[in-house]
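ESCALATION

Customer reports they have been waiting on this structure for their group meeting. Please prioritize. Original submission:
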Amino acid sequence: MDDRTQTDTVAPTRVTAMNVSAPAPVLSFNGVSMVYPDGTHALGETSFDVRPGEFVTVVGPSGCGKSTLLKIASGLHKPTTGTVDVDIKKVGYVFQDATLLQWRTVQRNVELLAELGGIAKAERSRRAADAIKLVGLSGFEGKYPKQLSGGMKMRASLARTLVLDPSVFLFDEPFGAVDEITRERLNDEVISLFERQRFGGLFITHSIGEAVFLSTRVLVMSARPGRIVAEYTIPFEYPRSPELRFDPEFARISGEISQQLRGAHA
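Update from on-call: job pushed to the front of the queue and completed.
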C-alpha cells in the first residue's frame, strides 16, 4: 500500500497478484484535490499509485469524485492542488457510453483514435483488426453501431482504445448500462485483455462484485469531497474464472468493502 494514504487494509489469505519488487508507477496522484469553478469541492487531497500489471478499482458514493479522478488522470481537468504523473500519450480512456460514430462501421470506429493520432492507414488497419479479434468482434467489422447490442458496442469501444497500445487504461463505469449477464461477460473479457496486455488499470464502478472480480486493489472513497478511506488488496491470482464470484472468500471481501462503503456514505 502506498505509505502516503491513511487507509485500512484487508490482509490477503492467498498469494497476491502483485510482484514483491514492484515496477515504477505508470500513474501517480500526489496530493491531488479538485474544487470546481462553481465552488463544488469534488475531491479531497488524494494520493495513490497504479503500477504496470496492477488493476486498481475505485468505489464510493455517487458524487464523491470518482470520475473526477479519471478526468484529471487523462488531462481533461487540471487539479486545484497536487500533481499527477502520467504519460498522457500512453493513456486509454473507456467512457460510460461507447461513444461510437453512427456513420462509421466497427472497423472504422476502431481505427478512429489511431487515425486522429496520425498513424498510417495500413498500420492502423492492422492494429484495428488485431484489437477487434481480441475483443471477440471478428465478423462484425462491417457492421454499424445501430446493428450492435449494448455489449458489442462496449467491445468496440475497448478495441478502439486498444489500438493505441496504452500503458494506462482508464475505465469510467463502462458497463453500468448493460444487463447483469452481459456485464459479467464483459468483465471476463476485460480480465482476458488485462492478462494479455498487463497494462495499469484504473476502473470506476458502483458494483462491489465487479470491483473485487477485476482488481488487484480496491480503493474506497468517502462522500464528497472524496478521499480514500480504505484500501483492500485482492488476493486472488489471475486468470480468474467466472466461478470465483461464488467463492466464500470473495463473498467475505465483498462484504467488508460493502460495510466500509456504507460508512463512507455517512
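Sent to customer with the following note: The chain has seven helices and nine strands.
Escalation resolved.
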